[in-house]
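U., I forgot to send this yesterday:
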Amino acid sequence: HLMMAAAAILSQHGQAADVLVATMTFGSPWMDVAKIAEALASRGHVVTVVAPASERKDLMLKWPTLNFETFGDPEKTPLIKEVFRSLPNKVTFSPPGIVGLLVAARTTISAGMDVCEEMLGDNRLMTKLKR
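Result:
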């Protein structure tokens, strides 16, 4: 979030730039990032968000001033999103104490790494972003 905030502040005094946003596109952290991205777009910057293909349609409806580049299967919910949905149950039915928290943390980190690998392993996306 800090980099986006710095970009927003600096953008007031410079010329238009291309901004790439690569973050989870759901939940409260995304809402903060999306607001900053929209502010940059309203000032003439070209803001491109990297997102799972299955979320493209919803994101374009909610954030029409942003551009979206996607990765993954458009028919498949991102694993990290599924993990966050099931996390309360996992924590509730996990062993008590620190062990349960460690299991939940490991599951969440693993899902996050899977999303990163999927994104970085998408040759079409990587080729397009390099241009």
